[in-house]
Design a protein that fits this description.
Blueprint: E1 4-8, H1 12-24, E2 39-41, E3 47-51, H2 57-62, E4 68-72, H3 73-79, E5 84-89, E6 95-102, H4 107-112, E7 117-121, H5 124-134, E8 138-142, H6 149-152, E9 158-163, H7 167-171, E10 174-183, E11 185-190, H8 191-196, H9 198-213
Helix pairs in contact: 1-9
Bound molecules: adenosine monophosphate.
Adenosine monophosphate binds next to β9 and α7.
Length: 214
């Protein structure tokens, strides 16, 4: 009987979590990257992995669909980390949340002159707060992906997106204009579970913290 569930998303987070899990002593029985299974057993009979959409991870953990979760800071800030205990910055899936513009666009000038910027992003809350704090007026255009296209076709002056190597920006003639925040994945914990299952969860949380230090 698996009595500890860890929610995480496929892709970058899963790929970078697997080595971390190995250091914690947990290995999935099947290869999550290729499996269509949404619940993965591990070699520890009391631990299972639950595969969710990245933006759903905080929801699963908040409502007890999983005891633990691994979620990017971008998701936690954008969709709310309220009601979640966030004890460990795992340091994985590291990147930065950036404002980016088309090469040649005078971002500093536009901001200085108080121009109204059109900004395309899927991170509407983070973007709204960032520009409100700077006193810059923005028209937000909500997109669900391929934000890099928006400045190229005149849909927006700027985008807000995650940047890792910068290759995607470079390939599309965009440049970094301003960093909003550094991003990495955090361990998140259901607060009620921490009380009722502390004996099982605390050693695992401590092991994650230790594994993340290396
Ligand atoms: P890069 O070309 O390496 O700068 O990566 C940029 C692309 O990958 C963008 O489409 C980002 O949204 C996405 N990306 C980069 N880092 C992450 C991350 N840690 N989590 C999710 N998406 C990311």
């Amino acid at each position: 009987m698996a009595d500890i569930s860890i929610a995480l998303s496929k892709g970058r987070i899963f790929d970078e979590t697997v080595p971390l899990l190995a250091r914690v002593g947990i290995a999935p029985k099947s290869n999550g990257a290729s499996s269509r299974k949404l619940i993965l057993a591990t070699h520890r009979s009391d631990v299972r992995l639950i595969i969710v959409r990245a933006t759903d991870t905080p929801t699963y953990v908040r409502y007890g669909g999983a005891d633990l979760g691994i979620a990017g800071r971008d998701v936690l800030v954008e969709h709310g980390g309220d009601g979640l205990y966030q004890p460990v910055d795992l340091g994985i899936a590291a990147c930065r949340m950036m404002v980016a513009v088309k090469k040649g666009f005078d971002y500093e000038g536009a901001v200085r002159q108080g121009a109204r910027l059109r900004v395309a992003t899927k991170y509407v809350n983070i973007t709204r707060e960032h520009f409100a704090a700077k006193g810059v007026h923005v028209d937000l255009i909500r997109l669900y992906g391929s934000m890099e296209l928006a400045p190229l076709v005149g849909l927006a002056d700027a985008i807000v997106d995650l940047v890792s190597t910068g290759n995607t920006l470079r390939a599309n003639d965009l440049v970094e204009a301003e960093q909003i925040m550094p991003v990495s994945a955090r361990l998140i914990v259901n607060q009620a579970a921490l009380k009722t299952k502390r004996a099982a969860l605390q050693p695992l949380i401590d092991a994650f913290a230790k594994a993340a230090e290396k």
